[in-house]
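In the current project phase, we have settled on a layout for protein records. One protein thus recorded is set out beneath this paragraph:
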Amino acid sequence: MTATEVQRPRVSENQGRTSRVLAIAGIMALVVGFGSVAGGLFGAWYTYDQAAAQSVVTPDDAAIPETPVRGPFTMWAQSDIITQHQLDSTEGLYYAEMERMVPQLDEAGEPVLDESGEAVMVPNEARSSWINATVLTTALGLGIVSYALSAFAVVAGLTLIFAGYAFLHIRKRALIL
């Protein structure tokens, strides 16, 4: 053997199989990790963009006053104040606690009576307004969940990227030894 020749150690069949498994696991972890980070970032951007398109600003009595609703904290503040305003307008009653039908009132606030002397019943508008409040708070809640899921995807993706790098590094070190 000459001085310029380098003798490579023989790799056993078991070492070769382990090397392939580590390479495959490392590459898969990297691909899924980068995809997860990209998906998480896209999810956060999309949620922000959709919230910004609505041009909603929290009212001055919200926990975070007079702030554009864009992120999870302003979404929470807006959802919370919608619920508070709704409870104020329904005297502290939630949808299920209210009567479905109420007597119709005239201009003087007296019940309107039918021909038989019974009060004319109409849908309870205060109860119906809970539907709008529930839709709005649910949409805001989904925005908050979207941000949380996006953050989880980014963190999980970064963890997978690190694991993929570690697998490939272990594989490289195993072949050297």
